[in-house]
């Protein structure tokens, strides 16, 4: 296993051999009960994030998602139609349920969101992907970027039409009472007749943290619904969300992690000294969304020479609207205000970690943002006649934005308002087997985004070899993006700026090839960036006028022999300017496991996995900005974050147990840092449970 090459003592190599021998021996012993060898349908290839635009289908209501052994009994007991929605056009985009069995234990870890992640340790804390092409565009409310994996947005919600009421309850837990980390998720949804569905999502995170002053609390409540008939399609979404996390500024002495023997005293992770106390960030997100679409078409009777079939509606065109109201706020507050003397200067304790102080009282930086978006659209539906080989949608959007933030001149807050008008369209072909494509473009024609444009597209083709489909796809985009208001203007106690940045230009091209015979997926992409905005080593916002090229190549190779499986994903990245866009050269996720069925009821996945990347100047984290910046003092990497786990499925229940960060028991020195000053959680036992209910 390549990811365990660092300073492995021969005795430790023997321990690894013994561990895998134990796993194989356990499986052989279980075979005496009765082992059912899995066939190829039990394994699905997890898609990566290459596709720019989700697939669409005019026959969505007839798509019943059945994932064989990779899905639980949800599909067997209650046929469901599941989709997402394009918030601008109202188009419904087919999706799959989030009840996959494979690697269920990884879904509750920050590490599991990408091949390589940068995060603060607790579940729910700020994080980002170290794979550059996995990152999304900067949001208008820039403080949301650090929490992007936890936000609830209309575009990500899974809308449902179900024949019987459906409930899903998820719970996962780790740590002792002092360090407890918990997450509870629930989905309750039911149809009222064939056309109306109403549901509720709950997502609660409460993590006390394994290090001092690092607790996290998230509360997210989402009410959603849809009404689908031949002529009317309506969707509603309301999310009330609050996120808060205590900030400790990172640990002050890395010896507590890298060489605990040098401390010469017993201690727990909670005893490790940190920079801040009584300091926290809180972010609020309330979103309200409503969309409607009226379908124009005709009724058609399906019949043959002998029988007259039922009458059904054929949509030809659609007129739609959508409205979205967003309330967001961010507050950085500290009671770490005891006065200390630093080189003869008296200041509050937290102030000693910052060069500038633009007001004297205790830090209390807050900003509020609201957005009201309204859009109208007109669509021509694909496939209503045989000669109509594509769908076409045009839309017009108006966005009114309001900001309230501290005034840089005097006490109180200043207000700022801006508006943006965008026109755009979508051209797609998602029916047929030989050629599928999505082309999308939008242009800012008035207001704050005047001159901003995006042109994006992906195309996919495939061919069958011996009954198995090999797919080849390509994607590209050209973007000219206006800087966000908060990138140009910001004022707080420790940071302020008024800039006039130029437009950011991004050009990307990439492709992907999936080969089913070898279970291999190859993908690559290159992007050219100009006027890229970032935070430099001094935590000041900057813009790099020169062009920067970022190249990524990715290989996913899954191997299996009977019940033995070895899944690998390797990502190579290079940046022409590491000071502006730092990336690890090599990142990988490797997962070695045994997978089988026992007594025809219990599916068992038993294995060990690891996330690993080469050493590089990983971005640092600045709590006062709630942003990641390009530090040049400390390299992070060359250390695996590994788990040993058992992942199981029994009827309508999924559950797992795992030991997290097991490499600390084998590898010295211990360097399990995700970011400078931020070690991941220490060796700990985790468990989780997911139950699907149908009644």
Folded structure, characterized:
Helix content is 5%, strand content 52%. It is mainly beta. The chain has one domain (2-293, 316-694): TonB-dependent receptor, beta-barrel domain (Maltoporin, Chain A). The strands form eight sheets. It has a 22-stranded antiparallel β-barrel. The chain has a three-stranded antiparallel beta sheet with strand order 3-2-6, with no helix packed on it. A two-stranded antiparallel sheet has the order 4-5. The radius of gyration is 26 Å and the shape is globular. Residues 1-59 and 61-78 have low confidence and may be disordered.
What CATH architecture do you see?
Beta Barrel
Structural class: mainly beta
What is the CATH T-level topology? Maltoporin, Chain A
From the spread of the alpha carbons, the general shape counts as globular
The residue ranges in which pLDDT falls below 50 over 5 or more consecutive positions are 1-59, 61-78
Q: Please state the average pLDDT score.
A: 87
Question: What is this structure's SSE topology?
Answer:
Blueprint: H1 10-34, E1 35-36, H2 74-77, E2 80-85, E3 92-94, E4 117-119, E5 127-129, E6 159-162, E7 166-174, E8 181-192, E9 196-207, E10 216-228, E11 232-246, H3 255-258, E12 279-303, E13 308-334, E14 339-342, E15 345-348, E16 364-380, E17 391-406, E18 413-429, E19 436-447, E20 453-465, E21 468-481, H4 485-488, E22 489-491, E23 496-498, E24 504-515, E25 520-530, E26 532-535, E27 541-544, E28 548-561, E29 564-575, E30 586-598, E31 602-613, E32 620-622, E33 627-629, E34 641-650, E35 653-660, E36 673-675, E37 678-679, E38 684-694
Antiparallel strand pairs: 1-30, 2-3, 2-6, 4-5, 7-8, 7-38, 8-9, 9-10, 10-11, 11-12, 12-13, 13-16, 14-15, 16-17, 17-18, 18-19, 19-20, 20-21, 21-24, 22-23, 24-25, 25-28, 26-27, 28-29, 29-30, 30-31, 31-34, 32-33, 34-35, 35-38, 36-37
């Amino acid at each position: 296993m390549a990811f365990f090459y660092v300073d492995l003592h021969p005795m430790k190599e023997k321990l690894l051999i013994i561990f895998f021998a134990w796993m194989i021996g356990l499986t052989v012993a279980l075979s005496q009960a009765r082992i059912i060898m899995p066939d190829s349908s039990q394994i699905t290839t997890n898609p990566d994030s290459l596709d720019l635009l989700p697939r669409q289908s005019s026959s969505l209501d007839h798509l019943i998602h059945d994932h064989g052994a990779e899905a639980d009994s949800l599909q067997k007991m209650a046929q469901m139609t599941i989709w997402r929605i394009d918030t601008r056009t109202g188009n419904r985009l087919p999706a799959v349920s989030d009840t996959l069995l494979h690697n269920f234990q990884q879904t509750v870890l920050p590490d599991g969101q990408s091949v390589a992640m940068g995060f603060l340790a607790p579940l729910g804390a700020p994080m980002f992907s170290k794979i550059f092409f996995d990152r999304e565009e900067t949001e208008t409310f820039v403080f949301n970027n650090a929490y992007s994996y936890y936000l609830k947005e209309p575009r990500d919600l899974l809308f449902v039409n179900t024949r019987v009421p459906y409930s899903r309850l998820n719970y996962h837990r780790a740590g002792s009472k002092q360090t407890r980390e918990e997450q509870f998720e629930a989905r309750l949804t039911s149809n009222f007749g064939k056309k109306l569905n109403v549901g509720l999502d709950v997502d609660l995170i409460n993590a006390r943290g394994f290090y001092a002053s690092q607790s996290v609390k998230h509360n997210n409540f989402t009410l959603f619904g849809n009404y689908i008939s031949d002529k009317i399609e309506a969707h509603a979404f309301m999310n009330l969300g609050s996120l808060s996390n205590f900030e400790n500024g990172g640990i002050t002495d890395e010896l507590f992690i890298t060489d605990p023997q040098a401390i010469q005293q017993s201690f727990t992770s909670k005893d490790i000294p940190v920079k801040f106390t009584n300091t926290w960030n809180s972010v609020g997100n309330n979103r309200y969304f409503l969309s409607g679409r009226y379908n124009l078409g005709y009724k058609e009777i399906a019949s043959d020479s002998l029988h007259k079939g039922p009458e059904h509606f054929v949509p030809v065109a659609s007129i739609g609207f959508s409205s979205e109201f967003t309330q967001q706020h961010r507050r950085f507050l500290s009671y770490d205000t005891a006065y200390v003397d630093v080189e003869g200067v008296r200041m509050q304790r937290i102030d000693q970690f910052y060069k500038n102080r633009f007001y004297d009282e205790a830090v209390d930086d807050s900003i509020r943002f609201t957005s009201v978006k309204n859009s109208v659209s007109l669509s021509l539906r694909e496939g209503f006649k045989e000669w109509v080989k594509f769908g076409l949608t045009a839309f017009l959007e108006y966005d009114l934005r309001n900001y309230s933030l501290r005034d840089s001149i005097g006490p109180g807050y200043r207000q700022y308002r801006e508006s943006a008008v965008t026109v755009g369209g979508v051209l797609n072909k998602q029916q047929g087997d030989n050629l599928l494509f999505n082309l999308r473009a939008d242009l800012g024609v008035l207001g704050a985004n005047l001159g901003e444009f995006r042109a994006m597209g992906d195309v996919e083709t495939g061919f069958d070899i011996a009954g198995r489909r090999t797919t080849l796809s390509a994607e590209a985009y050209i973007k000219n993006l206006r800087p966000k208001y908060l990138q140009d203007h910001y004022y707080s106690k420790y940071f302020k700026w008024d800039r006039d940045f130029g437009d950011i230009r991004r050009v990307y091209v990439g492709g992907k090839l999936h080969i089913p015979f070898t279970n291999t997926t190859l993908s690559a992409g290159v992007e050219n960036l100009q006027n890229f905005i970032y935070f430099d080593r001094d935590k000041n916002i900057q813009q790099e006028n020169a062009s920067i090229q970022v190249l990524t190549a990715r290989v996913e190779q899954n191997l299996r022999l009977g019940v033995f499986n070895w899944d690998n994903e390797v990502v190579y990245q290079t940046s022409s300017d590491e000071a502006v866009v730092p990336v690890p050269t090599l990142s990988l996720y490797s997962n070695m496991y045994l997978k089988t069925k026992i007594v025809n009821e219990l599916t068992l996945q038993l294995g060990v996995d690891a996330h690993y990347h080469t050493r590089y100047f990983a971005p640092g984290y600045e709590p006062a900005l709630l942003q990641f910046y390009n530090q040049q003092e400390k390299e992070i990497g060359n250390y695996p974050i590994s788990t040993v786990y058992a992942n199981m499925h029994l009827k309508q229940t999924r559950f797992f147990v795992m030991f997290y960060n097991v490499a600390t028991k084998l590898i010295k020195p211990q360097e399990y840092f995700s970011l400078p000053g931020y070690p991941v959680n220490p060796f700990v036992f985790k468990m989780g449970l997911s139950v699907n209910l149908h009644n």
